[in-house]
Batch of 4 targets.
Target 1
Amino acid sequence: AVQVTQSPSSLSASVGDRVTLTCRTSLGLTSSLVWYQQKPGKAPKLLVYDDFNLAAGVPSRFRGSTSGTDVTLTISSLQPEDFATYYCHYLGAFTFGPGTIVDIK
Amino acid sequence: QITLKESGPTLVKTTQTLTLTCTFSGFSLSNSGMAVGWLRQPPGKAPEWLALIFWDDDKRYSPSLKSRITITKDTSKNQVVLTVTNMDPLDTATYYCAHRMVRGVFDYWGPGTLVAVSS
């Protein structure tokens, strides 16, 4: 089965910080990876698909990109509403990564 | 706009069958390319995909749960139903239904329904 890993598993940051989250599949593929944001008690919210396309209504401070076999999600200037858990999802096998928790420092 | 909502029991007993209904609006599952999926998320864990049904009644199931789950649709009612047999406490989770874009991405999700399994 395809494994999806995310790093870091958690990070603490301050409002205004730039943060980068990384996702990788065991196949080394970078296509077909999607990013979701989830807040406690809420359903996951689509952020980025097709590597870098932002979903409707997603602020431009979110950016998806690839680097080698890694797919990254960068938040250029962290806002209070961005503290959440971020999941990477590999569409080829419907597999989700374990998530990265972004909390307040 | 697209909305989905899950409904069903919040508590089932071990070995029972769970039946959940997803009622949606804003799209028709009879239109080419449309699909609805079911996913679940145990407390504190990542989401897990369970099943997918397409406009043409094609179906996909998670290999790990394939023997226990069934997905069906009622296009006239705008509903998709998931059944899971032989429920176990490990099946305790929030169950979500979601609209799937043509690109394969789940872009709209229901609010979820928490199902607990008691022994």
Target 2
Amino acid sequence: KAGVTQTPRYLIKTRGQQVTLSCSPISGHRSVSWYQQTPGQGLQFLFEYFSETQRNKGNFPGRFSGRQFSNSRSEMNVSTLELGDSALYLCASTQGGLAGELFFGEGSRLTVL
Amino acid sequence: GESVGLHLPTLSVQEGDNSIINCAYSNSASDYFIWYKQESGKGPQFIIDIRSNMDKRQGQRVTVLLNKTVKHLSLQIAATQPGDSAVYFCAEKNDGQNFVFGPGTRLSVLP
């Protein structure tokens, strides 16, 4: 069974640009969560999608958004990039119950110059 | 929260010794806990989980202990190996909420 796949793995952007990251969950998993990981703040929850609906949201500004498609694939978008958005963005999937482990992808490393 | 990465708490152990990594969780309503291992350049990997109706759970070479009275979780790794070197995170969750991760501990296994 293929794991969680995130693309791209690495990308470099400049301030003010926008970026879209993609996540394909494990087959059969309906819930996708996104986390931002930085040295200063650790793993911070961004949002969770289940059946194309945002079910939970963390404390991030509106520049961070996401969506989920009918095949459970998810994208997150960050607009008007800031230097502080440089981070590893991790996607995790789970079958969809409110308990159960998260299966993480390898992450997308974003560098903002 | 505490820093992760360069400023992580670090535990150094000799190869073959047992390791104990501790975690204080924040929410007394949390009822599900997971330990994750993250190696450099990779996403976190599941190690072991425990629900709040248990106080101990064992896996292969790993044991998780849960003390709800003091909101404390620990991960014990038996006969630590070089491949165990990584950052370890605890995560807590209560029904309907998202997982909240601890700051992480870097485990360094000395030859």
Target 3
Amino acid sequence: DTEVTQTPKHLVMGMTNKKSLKCEQHMGHRAMYWYKQKAKKPPELMFVYSYEKLSINESVPSRFSPECPNSSLLNLHLHALQPEDSALYLCASSQDSAGNYGYTFGSGTRLTVV
Amino acid sequence: AQSVTQPDIHITVSEGASLELRCNYSYGATPYLFWYVQSPGQGLQLLLKYFSGDTLVQGIKGFEAEFKRSQSSFNLRKPSVHWSDAAEYFCAVGAGGGSYIPTFGRGTSLIVHP
């Protein structure tokens, strides 16, 4: 299995809702990442988990809450989002925390906040 | 800190023509270099990567890239473009040595005319 699987593919949520994005990989990768991507822009790093521990938080607002239940799963909990949070949310994984072998990306969750 | 420049926002080629996408980086030592492709509404896929050794790197889908230290460049090439190659292409540079967060360029949009 050489894939990163993200669910759901599309999500529409109101500003008072609570929802979660899920990411799963079975490649034995020990680092996992959340990126946010706006249209026509490169992906922006949000969080990095290395060996199931949060190692980087790129000053992301607290309405985004990551969770890594085990080495194969990564969640992103969403609460009280703003319309400007609408974007493509990408999960990625890499063999080790050095990340120098490149990332494997999921196909993303297209989030719309109304 | 490393940086990467993709000078072309859009590139238009005819199907069957050759392709070269430009990428210039800034980093004091030998960088880790990557090219990713993103089809509309999808995640990023790693095309190829360079760490060391042979400066001409072969990737998937018939792509290759050449590392030129003297020009601080890592240009992506393909001898004959197919309509399915139309996508966004991102160059990324990592510092290596445990600094595992790559810096992405702004991307180049490839348009393929029949």
Target 4
Amino acid sequence: SAVISQKPSRDICQRGTSLTIQCQVDSQVTMMFWYRQQPGQSLTLIATANQGSEATYESGFVIDKFPISRPNLTFSTLTVSNMSPEDSSIYLCSVGGVNGYTFGSGTRLTVV
Amino acid sequence: GENVEQHPSTLSVQEGDSAVIKCTYSDSASNYFPWYKQELGKRPQLIIDIRSNVGEKKDQRIAVTLNKTAKHFSLHITETQPEDSAVYFCAASRDTGGFKTIFGAGTRLFVKA
């Protein structure tokens, strides 16, 4: 299965600032997925990133708040913009889908 | 909308006992049902999965059963060990009419030594 490198692993950010999370996959993949996991909660899909097209956002998530880049088949970034304490969460990228997901190690974000 | 209900939310068992976690899904187009284990502070990892054309699948101490008519599936762990302690998530996926996966809320399993 694919190996995903995600960084940063954690960060503490001031409210109003932005943080960009990067994921690098060791093989070419069509779809990459960005999830949010709040403490003690399940996984919520933010958006699906396809190379060469706009990301598809789930209900409750918008591009202005969570812009995504997908410049090639092995890399994607998620930016959390204009952060507030409510954005404190773990953010995970993943690949796969119809045969299960492989997740990155996650980014633990704390907004103060 | 579609959802996946998972029960129980917390499960505590004695080492060596069995543990059963149950999930019910609503999207009749779901055809793939993975289970993930997430240890504290780590990423979720796929431990077993089952497709809609199969009723049961087993891998050593873990097994999954699927009842497509009733739209529910279960994870069974036998001879539990302390290292089985984790949060387990079920999920239901479909790949028709657009790919979609919905996760259950998770079950926190404690295995007492």
